[in-house]
């Protein structure tokens, strides 16, 4: 296995080609990352986004860095350069823990391998590991789907927020993976997708990929979620996660918290679908999760059109934290976790 090609990313052996998610669904453009800085910029600028996709891309970025410096036969010089590579990649987005998880996995293997291998041989070893991360991600998502699909009944309508689909992962998706698995199992499932202001991952990406997959989808603006729940149109909410603290608090796209509060008010189960790599056992609770604040123009502009007075003050946190008491269950590749979260998370993380 030397390559991988999915809708989200392709590893060619010398570069990482990413579908440019900034332009979807209006244009299908691609960005070819030929070095680690290209990958870092693509993560920062959200050419690629979604926690597992960010993690896998960073792993390939690490490989590109190793390739760039593999002419350095001095192991210490090589290590120093790869420390710079790791730093550049880790400074891109702070919230999704999969980024740090993937980089630490690569870095650990690098250090182990350097004990008995030359820098030249290391590139191949790291490349294999990055491919492993990518292939594993697809399998993990399918397993999350299998574990979660029994939570849905034939005829259910699911509300989702942001995009936790194939585009947010290497393929298949986490939250959308559960929906895909239920549909593959013969269930008739419909989706309501929040548009997900300000970046519109729901309107642009979730809707695009669900329609492509033939899953009946209805787009609503974020402020309609409460009313559609009140009207009895929603049977379950399923979202992804960027980081889950040890106590089960969940950081996900801004607006997820509001949806969870609304789901509680209406007695609707609120599920989080995420791989174990999204669980940050070191972080005690949601208060310890760094929340990225993004450029204010993401709120001022819709695509290239400014909709508001130029100098208006803006607050643009990209994520929020849903407290564990609002989470009905966390669907992982190992099992479906339910409260008490801290005990069950620690147990599954050490399996
Ligand atoms: O800012 P984004 O688009 O990277 O945020 C993505 C999300 O919040 C997703 O729900 C999360 O990363 C899970 S993706 C399987």
UniProtKB/TrEMBL annotation:
GO terms for molecular function: S-methyl-5-thioribose-1-phosphate isomerase activity. The record marks 162 as: Transition state stabilizer. Keywords: Amino-acid biosynthesis, Isomerase, Methionine biosynthesis. Substrate binds at residues 49-51, 93, 201, 252-253. Signal peptide: none annotated. Pfam families: IF-2B (PF01008). It catalyses: 5-(methylsulfanyl)-alpha-D-ribose 1-phosphate = 5-(methylsulfanyl)-D-ribulose 1-phosphate. Catalyzes the interconversion of methylthioribose-1-phosphate (MTR-1-P) into methylthioribulose-1-phosphate (MTRu-1-P). Belongs to the EIF-2B alpha/beta/delta subunits family. MtnA subfamily. This is Methylthioribose-1-phosphate isomerase. It comes from Petrotoga olearia DSM 13574. The lineage of its organism: Bacteria, Thermotogati, Thermotogota, Thermotogae, Petrotogales.
């Amino acid at each position: 296995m030397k390559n991988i090609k999915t809708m989200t990313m392709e590893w060619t052996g010398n570069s990482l080609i990413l579908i440019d998610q900034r332009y979807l669904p209006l244009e299908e453009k691609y960005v070819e990352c030929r070095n680690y800085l290209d990958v870092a910029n693509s993560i920062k600028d959200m050419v690629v986004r979604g926690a597992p996709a960010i993690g896998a891309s960073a792993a390939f970025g690490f490989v590109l860095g190793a390739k760039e410096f593999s002419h350095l036969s001095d192991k210490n010089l090589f290590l120093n350069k790869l420390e710079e590579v790791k730093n550049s990649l880790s400074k891109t987005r702070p919230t999704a823990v999969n980024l740090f998880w993937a980089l630490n996995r690569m870095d650990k293997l690098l250090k182990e391998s350097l004990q008995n291998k030359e820098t030249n041989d290391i590139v191949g070893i790291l490349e294999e590991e990055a491919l492993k991360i990518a292939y594993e991600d697809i399998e993990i998502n399918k397993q999350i789907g299998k574990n979660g699909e029994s939570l849905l009944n034939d005829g259910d309508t699911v509300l989702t927020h942001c995009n936790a689909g194939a585009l947010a992962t290497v393929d298949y998706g986490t939250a959308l993976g559960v929906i895909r698995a239920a549909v593959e199992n013969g269930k008739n499932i419909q989706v309501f997708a929040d548009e997900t202001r300000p970046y519109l991952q729901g309107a642009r990406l979730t809707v695009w990929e669900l329609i492509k997959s033939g899953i009946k989808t209805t787009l609503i603006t974020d402020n309609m979620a409460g009313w559609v729940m009140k009207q009895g149109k929603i049977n379950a909410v399923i979202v992804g996660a960027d980081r889950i603290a040890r106590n089960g608090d969940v950081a996900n796209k801004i607006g997820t918290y509001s949806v969870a509060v609304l789901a509680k008010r209406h007695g609707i189960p609120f599920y989080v679908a995420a791989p174990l790599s999204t669980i940050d056992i070191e972080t005690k609770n949601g208060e310890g999760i760094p929340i990225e604040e993004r450029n204010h123009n993401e709120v001022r502009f819709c695509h290239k059109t400014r909709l508001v007075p130029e100098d208006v003050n803006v607050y643009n946190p990209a994520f929020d934290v849903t407290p564990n008491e609002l989470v009905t269950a966390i669907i992982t590749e190992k099992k479906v976790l339910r409260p008490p979260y801290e005990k069950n998370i620690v147990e599954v993380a050490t399996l």
